[in-house]
Amino acid sequence: MKHVTTRSAGDTAWAINPRRARDLRVAAKATPGDTKQHNRTLVLQTLYVSGPLSRADIARATQLTKVTVSGLVAELISEGLVEELGQRESQGPGKPATLVDLARSAHAIVALDLSDDKLLRGAVIDLAGRTHARAEAARLDAQGIAVTGDAACELVIELALTLRDASELPVLGLGVGTPGVVDADGVVRVAPNLGWEALPLRQILTERTGLATTIENDANVAALAEYSFGDTSEDFALVRIGFGVGAGIILGGRSIPGSQFASGEIGQVMVGTDLGIDAPYNREQVLEHWLSVPTLTRALEAAGPAGREQVLREAGNRLGVALAPVIGMLNLAEIVLSGPPELVDGTLADAAYEILTRRTMPNSHDTLVIRTTGQGEDLILRGAAAVVLRERLGVS
Amino acid sequence: MKHVTTRSAGDTAWAINPRRARDLRVAAKATPGDTKQHNRTLVLQTLYVSGPLSRADIARATQLTKVTVSGLVAELISEGLVEELGQRESQGPGKPATLVDLARSAHAIVALDLSDDKLLRGAVIDLAGRTHARAEAARLDAQGIAVTGDAACELVIELALTLRDASELPVLGLGVGTPGVVDADGVVRVAPNLGWEALPLRQILTERTGLATTIENDANVAALAEYSFGDTSEDFALVRIGFGVGAGIILGGRSIPGSQFASGEIGQVMVGTDLGIDAPYNREQVLEHWLSVPTLTRALEAAGPAGREQVLREAGNRLGVALAPVIGMLNLAEIVLSGPPELVDGTLADAAYEILTRRTMPNSHDTLVIRTTGQGEDLILRGAAAVVLRERLGVS
DNA sequence: TTTATTTAGTTCATTAGCTTTACTAACCAT
DNA sequence: ATGGTTAGTAAAGCTAATGAACTAAATAAA
To answer: In A, which residues are within 8 Å of B17 by CB distance?
Structure first.
């Protein structure tokens, strides 16, 4: 029934993953200053999420003492990040509270969206999410061809400068959502669409604009926007259907960058086994072949009005097939689709959902939600702004 | 070329994700005590991965001052977690260093592996990874049928008690790797194989054994074992081929639990589109149909020696098809396979790799490594021990 | 009208923890 | 011996959070 053996120790000690030792160098010590930083951010975050509050409210919400909160708030006020709003009209006994809030209209963020192949877009957005100015720059040259490489980079710099100068508010930072692979240092490792390779965009923009700059992949910032301003859960993927197809992934409330900063590259994966299970890589069998805006548009034109449903259904089906293993693997709660509503909404999304339920077991999909984004046109701009909020204020 | 508009603010403020406000309740304030806890863990972690060191070495490695390190080390020594090893023979001028190290042979962990359908396994393992005792309990009743439900639970408790009592060292904690879905409170939400549903296993074991207990899914602890003691990167998935097929995922060095604590359920996902793209869910088309040990064994018997390669190749192919979207999506650096070596090693792994390279774009797979685990039979036991180390010492 | 109660926010002394500076201990080399 | 080097400790100081006591300003009750 039961079998017990006692051995002399010393046979098979384990070895510790050598790469972990290296990581340790990164693990930082903590100081009292870190404690303060943490609590400061906690206060900011509380205000950010829960609107105007009294110091006492903040103390209750954060579990910090009134004394500590008063000190932190005073500091934040002196930095201009928080402002007093006057007294709350008293409701019940006790001294009336003085309300404080993030100075939402006192700072702005410059956000850029480089995801479109024809038009670079940008905006000045304040901390309340209000747009104060917009600017666009056509990516086309005199011959009507999209500019790339250094010329495109110059266009981006110009756009950033224009918006920086258009802002009447002090600018907290510059956030950029760009297609391509962006590493943790803000270097665009590769962005075929823009003709960039190993372009240190963050450094360039920081130098040229004087603004604290953050660069991230467009699908990632889109996911962050959805997470910050949508009604998402903590585990979801946003699939962006545009010139290409890419995804941004949030797990446990954290953005997933991938080992090579190339997460979300779902568009280039083969879908289905139409050509046999061991068929070689074939561009006609990758997800983008069915799902990108250019190919979808072409297919819809070719099919005519009668074939429209069929084309959209096929696209949704393929998306479902591609996502099924991801859903099973990650136990996602939600898939958010972003793309032209007339293409994505309805049939396409429905078909994807149906295929997902057909290809994964109920456990994996019975709480799954699939829906389209409610953030509209400004998804990327908002995401770029959210990235700056996260980096500069620890708020998100 | 460029088009700038300045709007009055106030048009479209963003709304903050309402679920975030709720999460805030979890976000905790920091106190000076947290700082100390952090640094204490940092010292432990440093000793854990870098072997015996002098106090001065630790100070250099952690960036803490010698004074702080001396204080923390003194405390850890008084708790019995760290011990002085005597002087290092001097090499060069200066006072010779006194070496200290984790008291690796002074504490033990009781680890249980419930993943096998016939045999519950357990061991007493010290902090160096040496096995001090082993015990097993057959899951079969008098009729030779695997016990489930409460009877299985009793068997687990007995096994834990046996090992606890067999340990001559003080026991730091009890770690359990079990099949099924386990939530953050150590409740087994569902484990069909063991006939458990909503079983508060952690609570039960804590009460019955008096040991600090941690329960996690078997594939997750396997991944953690590989991450702790293998030579993995920070972004990988471990695919466990056993009675079923499940996976554990580590991204950025963190374990991914999934929104419903059910990550890694890759075995129940349909693979390929043999029956058409919109075929209904079919157990004959899910990954486990080709890849689990029982089905593989059966297929190999049916095929005979001549068909062996073909069967293994097909299984590897299916695994590759299922993993391709996951690889593209997560940009994993590595896939680790765990299962009977005679089945998994070689043809199966090779086929999976080849399919992966055929179904994902080079960017996604050109640095991808696929290999089998080097942790052997004790993978789950080691993982269960690693979980306890992580929970109790913050070390991993 | 006066008094008690309640809530907001501040002042002050205390505690916890890390750091700097200064020191002793112990070793090597000249 | 003496100077230089490294390990480790002691004492004082700085930062940050805390608890107790206090003031301020309102409502409710007597």
So the answer is: 227-232
B5-11+106-222+379-393 has which fold? Nucleotidyltransferase; domain 5 (3.30.420)
| pLDDT value of position B2 | 65
pLDDT of residue B51: 80
Chains A and B form CB pairs within 8 A to the count of 379
Query: Could you tell me if A391 and A236 are in contact, meaning their C-beta atoms sit under 8 angstroms apart?
Result: no
B358 at A interface, C-beta within 8 A: yes
Q: Is the CB of B33 under 7 A from strand C?
A: yes
The nucleotide lying nearest A40 (C-alpha to C1') is D16
A219 Cβ under 8 Å from any chain B Cβ: no
Mean pLDDT of A355-368: 93
Which residues in chain B have their CB less than 8 angstroms from residue A166's CB?
4, 6
Any idea which fold B231-374 has? Nucleotidyltransferase; domain 5 (3.30.420)
- B31-102: what fold? Arc Repressor Mutant, subunit A (1.10.10)
pLDDT at B86: 87
Average pLDDT of the segment spanning B164-173: 97
Q: Best mutation site among A1, A4, A8 for testing chain B: the one with the most B CBs within 10 Å?
A: A4
Residues of B in contact with A6 (CB under 8 A): 132-134, 166
Report the alpha-carbon distance of residue B244 to residue B241 in Å, rounded: 6
**Does A231-374 match A5-11+106-222+379-393 at the fold level?**
yes
Flag if A273 and B268 touch (Cβ within 8 Å).
no
> Does A156 score more than 90 pLDDT?
yes
Tokens of A94: 């006790």
pTM, whole model, 2 decimals? 0.94
Cβ atoms A188, A179 nearer than 8 A: no
Share of chain B above pLDDT 70, in %: 96
Residue-range domain boundaries for chain A: 5-11+106-222+379-393, 31-102, 231-374
A131 at B interface, C-beta within 8 A: yes
